[in-house]
Design brief:
By secondary structure, this protein is α/β, with parallel strands linked by helices. It has helices at residues 47-58, 129-138, 171-180, 182-188, 197-206, 212-224, 233-251, 266-278, 288-302, and strands at residues 9-14, 19-24, 30-36, 64-69, 97-98, 108-110, 114-117, 123-126, 144-148, 153-159, 162-169, 260-264, 283-287. The strands form 3 sheets. A 6-stranded mixed beta sheet has the order 3-2-1-4-6-5, with helices on both faces. It has a 5-stranded mixed beta sheet with strand order 11-10-9-12-13, with helices on both faces. The chain has a two-stranded antiparallel ribbon with strand order 7-8. Strand 9 and strand 10 form a beta hairpin. Helix 3 packs across helix 4 and helix 6 packs antiparallel against helix 7 (233-251). The relative contact order is 0.14.
Length: 306
């Protein structure tokens, strides 16, 4: 079968453990996509063949390929230096790394991430989320606060595409560690957890009342004192961690005010929206996949990859 000649560009969102690739035509329409578990860690030492496998799965030989995410980290194919806040998201491709060892003639670039320092000079970084922000910018969302929940939840303030502030919360990573290991996991037991809206709401409300390490232990205490069934531990822990993140932002006088725009997976978006409503907030929901595709189309239109 001949490769799909209508494809202009392939964009790959290449994370640590998973990746998703999108084949776009010149109008920016997504003609096909694929996803697998060939993340940056799994592809160590075989990135050229892993990219070739993705292109074969899409049945295409595009004019160019754009890679984003952890593929450009120290864990990835090539470590691409971070850019600073002086580089707007719509100029990211100008600072991309051209991959010299694809084993193919298709021009391929890796987009950089951002390193942004706060007013005290402390750095924060993101790699991958900036591509969704570029897509949001391309879709007309060019200023304001953007929330990108995940393993490391990002809060990013843009002003006409320039990153003014960046704050990272290890919400997803903590949730995964605590539900799998330690005393909270032991309290949850081996029974299949059930999603308990009341327990989630209790976690959101409890967040921020004391130090987080004390509040985390309350998940165990509630179970052993029979205030909460063990199967509700996961929902309570989720509410506690998301609530802590939201309340930290709200309680910081230098933190974001006004409208929040949220990009993420449907399940995470639902949890963040529920927590926000309990705190009297709301988010404008943006489609994360549509944002990534829009970023790829912007690059295809504005940057010569060949």
């Amino acid at each position: 079968m001949a490769a799909n000649s209508a494809v202009s560009i392939v964009g790959v969102d290449w994370g640590t453990t998973h990746r998703r690739a999108y084949a776009l035509d010149v109008q920016g329409q997504c003609l096909s996509d694929m996803s697998d578990a060939d993340g940056a860690l799994a592809c160590k030492g075989r990135f050229p063949s892993a990219l070739d496998a993705a292109l074969r799965a899409l049945d295409t030989r595009p004019a160019g390929v754009v890679l984003a995410g952890m593929v450009g980290s120290a864990l990835g194919w090539h470590e691409v230096p971070y850019v600073g806040s002086q580089v707007p998201v719509h100029a990211l491709a100008a600072h991309a790394f051209r991959v010299p060892d694809t084993g193919d003639s298709i021009p391929t670039i890796i987009l950089p991430g951002y390193c942004v320092r706060n007013t005290a000079g402390l750095p924060d970084v993101m790699r991958g989320e900036e591509t969704q922000l570029l897509g949001a910018w391309a879709l007309g969302h060019r200023s304001g606060w953007f929330v990108l929940p995940g393993t490391h939840s990002k809060w990013v303030q843009l002003e006409d595409g320039r990153v003014l502030q960046l704050r990272t919360y290890m919400t997803g990573e903590l949730f995964d560690l605590l539900r799998r290991h330690g005393t909270v996991a032991a309290a949850a037991g081996t029974a299949e957890p059930i999603w308990d809206d009341a327990a989630f709401a209790a976690g959101v409300r409890a967040a921020g009342e004391h130090a987080l390490s004390h509040q985390i232990f309350s998940a165990r205490a509630r179970v052993v004192c029979k205030d909460m069934p063990a199967t509700s531990t996961t929902a309570y822990l989720s509410g506690l961690l998301i609530g802590t993140e939201l309340k930290d932002v709200l309680h910081d006088s230098a933190g974001p005010l006004g409208t929040f725009k949220l990009l993420g997976s449907p399940q995470l978006v639902a949890h963040y929206q529920s927590a926000a409503q309990l705190l009297g907030l709301s988010f404008d929901i943006l489609d994360a996949q549509a944002a990534f595709v829009a970023a790829m189309h912007h690059i295809d239109l504005n940057w010569k990859l060949t």
